[in-house]
Amino acid sequence: MRIDGAAYRTIWPEGDGVVAIIDQTRLPHDFAVVRLTGLEEAAHAIRAMLVRGAPLIGAAAAYGVALALRADASDRGLERACATLLATRPTAVNLRWALERMRGLLAPLPEAQRVGAAEAEAAAIADEDVEINRAIGLHGAALIRAAAERKAPGEPVNVLTHCNAGWLATVDWGTALAPVYAAFEQGIPLHVWVDETRPRNQGASLTAWELKHHGVPHTVIADNVGGHLMQHGKVDLCIVGTDRTTATGDVCNKIGTYLKALAAHDNGVPFYVGLPSPTIDWTIADGVREIPIEERDGREVSELTGRTADGRIETVRVTPDGSPVANYAFDVTPARLVTGLITERGVCPATRDGLLGLFPERG
After folding, report:
1. What pLDDT is recorded for position 92?
2. How many domains does the chain have?
3. Is 53 annotated as a binding residue?
4. Does 308 lie in the same domain as 230?
5. Chosen domain end from 128, 156, 178
6. What confidence score (pLDDT) does residue 90 get?
7. Which residues form the active site (predicted)?
8. Element (H or E) spanning 144, and its range?
């Protein structure tokens, strides 16, 4: 995607053991590139959410393994790298998927071959993510086009999204926003309602930032506005992302997604989920009971960071001193509330049979 006319991915190798990332904790007020040179830096980037979004976490973990092996390419070094990176974030299944793929490739190789193979495989994972997301965009754009055909000529399709599932959450294109970008490039009139997405404000800070830079019409709204908009016919469809999807179509996404799905169901608004196949966890069937929900530092709820009128970046407390804070980062939307899953192979019902219809090799 483009920032001020320049093409960027969210992560890229610079050679000689350096991997560059966009520091998402400093957006939207400051665009900064951070360079990773070792395992601990890569793990910190994932844990502290310099990089976030399930697909990007997976790619960053793959590059983290490659960086780690430059310092220690032994079996012990490989296992330490995978264990350290796996412990950074518990919910996004792409992290485990990428590490298992790296370990499976590298473990049989002689130590002398591991660094080069790891760097090539990390690059392959990143390239594959771009193409997967591009395909999600094309399949999802067809849904937006169909919605446009039901509206008056020139009237925009109103899409509501929650959190950030754009190109900042992936290597490029995005998952939930890939259909928006594809439809926009096809000239389909559209407008995006952007949930602010407390507590980390990924919608207001990241989704709005990338839509603005790409020129897509959008409006930032408070998290609880979506239901009101749906009641008044101002949302044509919802598209969100997912950090883990069960084999039966339950989806785990940023906290608050479940409430949007309930509102959509009550108002007859189609609710779609954009997901790359590595986000599907084929080992579990009940998302509510089986997906681990990350609980993060309460300061993400009790404090807010923003830019003051004179340009300073400041953090302020918004809760009373001493008030306990709970910070559940994700919730699970049951498959019964999901209209369809948008994957790189097409759109399917949020059911086991629907997923197996697109991925028969998993049967």
Report:
1. 72
2. 2
3. yes
4. yes
5. 128
6. 83
7. 243 (proton donor)
8. helix 111-149
Based on the fold, state whether residues 170 and 119 are members of the same structural domain: no
54 annotated binding-site participant: yes
- First-last CA distance in the chain: 36
Q: Which residues of the chain have pLDDT under 70?
A: none
Residue 134, domain member (yes or no): no
Domain boundary among 94, 128, 162: 128
H or E segment and range at residue 347: strand 346-348
| Residue of 240, 221, 235 whose CA lies nearest to 340 | 240
Q: Is 331 part of the annotated catalytic residue set? A: no
Indicate if 195 and 83 belong to the same structural domain.
no
**pLDDT score at 258:** 98
Q: Is the pTM of this model over 0.85?
A: yes
According to DSSP, the residues that pair with 341 across neighbouring strands are 273, 348
Q: Report the alpha-carbon distance of residue 237 to residue 149 in Å, rounded.
A: 13
Q: Say whether 137 counts as a known binding-site residue.
A: no
**The domain containing residue 29 runs over which residues?**
2-128
Token pair for 311: 């340009």
Asked whether the beta carbons of 271 and 261 are under 8 A apart, the reply is yes
Active-site hit among 129, 195, 223, 243: 243
The verdict on whether residue 253 carries a ligand-binding annotation is yes
Residue 282's CB is within 10 A of a number of other CB atoms, namely 16
Whether 235 and 284 share a structural domain: yes
Q: In angstroms, what is the C-alpha Rg of the chain? A: 20
- One domain for residues 178 and 302: yes
Longest Cα–Cα distance of the chain, Å, equals 63
DSSP symbol at 204:
I
